[in-house]
Amino acid sequence: MNLVLRLILFAFLLIIPISEIAVFLVVGEAIGVLPTIALVVITAVIGAALLKQQGLQAFQRLQDDIRERRVPAASIGHALTVAIAGVLLLTPGFITDTVGFLLFIPAVRTWLWRSISSSVKVYRVDPVSGTAGPTGGYREGQRTIDLDTTDYGPRDSDPETPWRRDS
User: Fold this and answer.
1) 101 CB-near residues (< 8 Å, 6+ apart)
2) Cβ(20)–Cβ(94) under 8 Å?
3) What are the backbone angles phi and psi of residue 121, rounded to the nearest 5°?
4) What are the φ/ψ torsions at residue 133 (nearest 5 degrees)?
5) Sequence-ordered list of residues with C-beta below 8 angstroms from that of 72, at least 6 positions apart, any chain
6) CA 155 from centroid of its chain's CA atoms
7) pLDDT tens over the chain, length 167 residues
């Protein structure tokens, strides 16, 4: 793994828990220990309910896309975002809860998907050959040529064909 990526991961694993502890201390001092614990439990319960509701909706959109033969890239992105939001809300802490609640807002998920969708490549696996290829329609600079069996292959009767066998 790249050194920069390791440092970023280490920073997140160090900074987020320390920040959460600091926020717990500030909130606990402001409203008391029991209300702080109650807030953490309440956000976890609300997060579980939102995860169930929006997770089912995301799964339904994914099924609709597959049924209608659309590429489900956006549906997968939304479902993944809902799952991350659920995990963040079930994790004790006010910072993670705030990010989790933001990810449950459909407009935020749409904005996030639009921000990263240009760097996401979706490939469809051909059920016959088992090979993967990019999805989508016409791409600039590429042509599709549809051939029949009469359009290619060796033909001894045509002297101009490059397929002629020289015996």
Assistant:
1) 43, 47, 85, 89
2) yes
3) -110, 130
4) -150, 160
5) 61, 62, 65, 66
6) 50
7) 688 888 888 888 899 899 999 999 999 999 999 999 999 899 889 988 988 988 888 889 888 888 888 877 778 888 888 889 988 888 888 999 999 999 988 899 888 888 887 776 666 666 656 565 555 444 455 566 666 666 665 555 666 666 555 54
